[in-house]
Design a protein that fits this description.
This protein is an alpha/beta fold. The protein has 11 helices and 9 strands. It is globular.
Length: about 240
Amino acid sequence: MLIFAYNSFMDKISIIIPVYNESVGLPALFSRIAPFAKDSEVIFADGGSTDDTAKIITNNGYKCLSAPKGRANQMNHGAKAASGNVLWFLHADSIPPIDALSQIRKVLSAGNEVGCFPIRFSSSHPLMFVNAILSNMRVRLFNIAFGDQGIFVKASLFKKIGGYAQIPLMEDLQFSKDAQKLNHKITLTKKHIITSDRRYRTNGRLRTMLQMKILQHRFRRGDSIEEIAAAYNSMKS
């Protein structure tokens, strides 16, 4: 048991961050990932930004790959270039805990191969508090994690699953379902990740929550993913 735990803590973690026109937010992002850079591999996957995103990333000493636009495409592209045996997919506007790497390793040292962080939103609004509770319950009860929860997975399992499905939306939900099919439980860390509530603020918190539930239901019942993505993109961002 001690040997197993030791090996898990020796895992190399590759942090994969999909980006698109993130130049304004990059300084804050660099500050957030700086504590991890020394003990992990950081890979940015740029989806064809039309601003200086890629230039700023490389000028700051990070690896930046060019990938076809689309979060699934970008994350898969980053995963192919990763050398770590653990892949951590991090959204550019997420704020992970300072000890995120040790949190990941604790989950893996317990024999798990896939996990995520419980979520909190960057707003104290009651609806966002409720939304966070429901999101975390969804992981515990239904084994479904969303991308803003910082999904991490053993590279071997990611390869076995086939990576993220090449779909324009809900790739995280599909990935969770694919992990379930292989009898893998998505395990939560102890510490939370904080994510932006920007879309909820601009489109209306309750309205956005209801719209997202409807789109998730449509996905589960097998509606056209292109139609679901069009409906999602019609929401203000």
